[in-house]
Amino acid sequence: MFYPNQTKWLETAEALKPTLLKETFLPTRLVKVVADSAAFQGWRVEADQRDLAWLETATLGDGESFILDFGEHRVGRLQLRIESDRSFNDAPIRLKLIFAEIPAELTETLDTSNVSLSRNWLQDEQITVDELPVSLTLSRRFAFRYVRVETVGIPSAFRIHIRDIACEASASVPQAIKHMIPFHLSTGDHSIAEASLRTLRDCMQTVFEDGPKRDRRLWIGDLRLQALANSVSYRHFDLVKRCLYLFAGVADDKGLMPSCLYETPTPRNAQCFAMDYPALYTVTLSDYVMHTGDEATGRELLPVALRQLELLLAYRQADGLYQLKNIWWFIDWDDSLDRQPCIQGLMICCIKSAVVLAQRLGMAEMAEKFARMIPELTRLARSLFVDGKPVPASASGQVSWGAWAWLTKGVVLNPEEAASAFDRMRLLPGAVKPGGPYLMHYCLEALIDIGRKETALELARIYWSGMLAAGFDTFPEVWDITNPKRSPYGTHLLNSYCHAWSCTPVWIFAQTGA
Ligand code: RAM
Question: Which of 65, 361, 407, 490 fits a disulfide with 114 by CB distance 3.0 to 4.6 angstroms?
Answer without folding.
Answer: 490
